[in-house]
Automatic annotation (TrEMBL):
Residues 194-204 have a biased composition (Low complexity). One of its GO terms (biological process) is Golgi localization. Keywords: Cytoplasm, Cytoplasmic vesicle, ER-Golgi transport, Golgi apparatus, Membrane, Protein transport, Transport. This is Coatomer subunit delta. It comes from Scleropages formosus.
Length: 511
């Protein structure tokens, strides 16, 4: 088989795309294609037509023809198979089979034709192989482009970070009563010498003192001073990134995982023969644009008696809850006694509570969609900038009677874009590049430290920074239910008892 040419032409014989596989002049191929419509018998449908010198093998394509010009001694079956492959290639590059679309993708078609036929002979290829060959995909080129884009993003992020440091330094200088022009040399020499860095630390820390309460609880000042000297290295490849993980992480002394925090909450206390454990778990889901989707608080009082002398007792419960909590006693507890006098005791007063076993005597549940009852509100506000997103996130303690410990706000960040550039910060932060999260760590959140904010910049889109999750522990329950006194059933004499109270997070997410 010798294939002379392949062409896409109109029904009038006008060539739109033609590829010659042997030496042929333009005049020769145009003459052959112009003669093609005149040879066709309009009364019958054929797939080929012959002249004295060549054979035309063709297939209609709506208003066009796909035509192969071969020698007369070529194998007609192979010609038809080749024609089908040519006809399947054209829709791969052209959405519609019209003259304008064919002309627009003419070079793509010619490159594909060259993969099918070489020097007049059919190549053993299929449609998938043709697609792969014409794409000319290069893994090395992709790696080079990814590395270059990463370096450009890191350079831009470093530029924004230094600009924010300069702006923050000027603001702090104005607060301290110094003249802003005196800070002009900060950009060139502020991070190079030990003496100048100490001046910067004083400037950053001193203005923060008026903001902090008489007993400061958040290390916002020192964290900013440490942040100025951090992240002095910029890596240029992925291997160095892996080796330098942790360079830009400020490890807080009190930031713990939720599981670790719940373990750390239980202090070492002297347990009495009557020991009470008051536990609450909170589950909360909020929308990123505001609004509480669901909030549920589950609580329980667990009693453990280790001395048979104190088996017959009453628990005096103080219920100061005003949020509409639902209470439920154990089936063996006298419900009428609890309803009338807020006392927890057995239905049969002659019986004793089980020894050396934990017994849940009272549980409660609060479920609401009232946004005013959210103990800690989180507002995450990502806004797109020229090279990524500027993210502002803030918290506010609405339940001022609570003291939250080991608060960790976890914000997801896009992978492969480098470390976030931290701006204003209350508390401390930790960037985990393996899990692609930024953890904002706050040792204590209470009435003296009820609000705070974090600002950072990183490449990404607004939706990349959700869901935001929060974890914390507290030594005080959300629903104010406590046991104030324990007395004997006979004589109402007081009994020494010990109590441990905890509030932990089961789920706390902003979706």
């Amino acid at each position: 088989m010798v294939l002379l040419a392949a062409a896409v032409c109109t029904k009038a014989g006008k060539a739109i795309v033609s590829r010659q596989f042997v030496e042929m002049t333009r005049t020769r191929i145009e003459g052959l294609l112009a003669a093609f419509p005149k040879l066709m018998n309009t009364g019958k449908q054929h797939t080929f037509v012959e002249t004295e010198s060549v054979r035309y093998v063709y297939q209609p394509l709506e208003k066009l023809y796909m035509v192969l010009i071969t020698t007369k001694n070529s194998n007609i079956l192979e010609d038809l198979e080749t024609l089908r492959l040519f006809s399947r290639v054209i829709p791969e590059y052209c959405r519609v089979l019209e003259e304008g679309e064919i002309s627009e993708h003419c070079f793509d078609l010619i490159f594909a034709f060259d993969e099918i036929v070489a020097l007049g002979y059919r190549e053993n290829v299929n449609l998938a192989q043709i697609r792969t060959f014409t794409e000319m995909d290069s893994h090395e080129e992709k790696v080079f482009r990814a590395v270059r884009e990463t370096q450009e993003r890191e350079a831009k992020a470093e530029m924004r970070r230094k600009a924010k440091e300069l702006q923050q330094a000027r603001r702090d200088a104005e607060r301290a009563g110094k003249k802003p022009p005196g800070f002009g040399g900060f950009g060139s020499s502020g991070v190079t010498g030990g003496s100048s860095s100490s001046v910067i630390s004083e400037t950053i820390i001193e203005p923060e003192k008026p903001k902090i309460a008489p007993t400061p609880v958040r290390p916002s000042g020192p964290s900013k001073a440490l942040k100025l000297g951090a992240r002095g290295k910029e890596v240029d490849n992925f291997v160095d990134k892996l080796k330098s993980e942790g360079e830009n992480i400020i490890i807080p002394s009190t930031g713990k995982r939720p599981s670790e925090a719940s373990k750390a909450l239980a202090p070492t206390i002297n347990t009495e023969s009557v020991h009470l454990r008051i536990e609450e778990k909170i589950s909360l889901t909020c929308g990123r644009d505001g609004g509480l989707q669901n909030m549920e608080v589950l609580g329980m009082i667990t009693l453990r008696v280790s001395d048979d002398k104190n088996g017959r007792i009453h628990l005096h419960v103080s219920n100061n809850d005003k949020k509409g909590v639902q209470l439920q006693t154990h089936p063996n507890v006298d419900k009428k006694l609890f309803t009338a006098d807020s006392l927890i005791g057995l239905k049969n007063p002659e019986k004793s509570f089980p020894l050396n076993s934990d017994v849940g005597v009272l549980k409660w549940r609060l479920q609401t969609t009232d946004e005013a009852l959210v103990p800690l509100t989180i507002n995450c506000w990502p806004s797109e900038s020229g090279n990524g997103c500027d993210v502002n996130i803030e918290y506010e303690l609405q339940e001022e009677d609570l003291e939250l410990n080991d608060v960790v706000v976890t914000i997801p960040v896009p992978s492969g874009v480098g470390a976030p550039v931290i701006g204003d910060l209350d508390g401390e932060y930790r960037h985990d590049s393996r899990k692609n999260v930024l953890e904002w760590c706050l040792p204590v959140v209470d009435s003296n430290n009820k609000t705070g904010s974090l600002e950072f910049s990183v490449a990404g889109r607004p939706g990349d920074f959700f869901p935001v999750s929060v974890s914390f522990v507290s030594k005080r329950t959300y629903c104010d239910i406590q046991v104030t006194k324990v007395t004997q059933v006979d004589g109402d004499s007081p009994v020494r008892f010990s109590t441990e109270t905890s509030l932990v997070v089961d789920k706390y997410e902003i979706l």
